[in-house]
């Protein structure tokens, strides 16, 4: 399982690095494109196969966040339109909350400073 996760996660990162090296796209645009790719692939029912095969290798990269949002919306849509909108938020809430809480804790522990050129 670790090898599959490493290979799939590495392949996703390799694609991103090739895009960075050979295009003039900014990092922000690449992040958005990868997240949208996760959304589109899950909407087509394809990303789930990658998650089942590679586990964290497919869910940890930013495309996995898009997959998570789309999966929550799809599951919520089965209950109605309101749940289709809130399903994405509910699916991603634990990860986003953890990121905010840990960022706050580390901000308290470490002193931040501007990068000097």
TrEMBL record:
Parts forming coiled coils: none
Keywords for the protein's UniProt record, in alphabetical order: Membrane, Transmembrane, Transmembrane helix
Membrane-crossing segments per the record: 6-23, 30-47, 82-110
InterPro entries per UniProt: SpoVA
Record keyword Transmembrane helix present: yes
Annotated PANTHER family: STAGE V SPORULATION PROTEIN AC-RELATED (PTHR38450), STAGE V SPORULATION PROTEIN AEB (PTHR38450:SF2)
Name recorded for this polypeptide: SpoVA/SpoVAEb family sporulation membrane protein
UniProt source species: Candidatus Borkfalkia ceftriaxoniphila
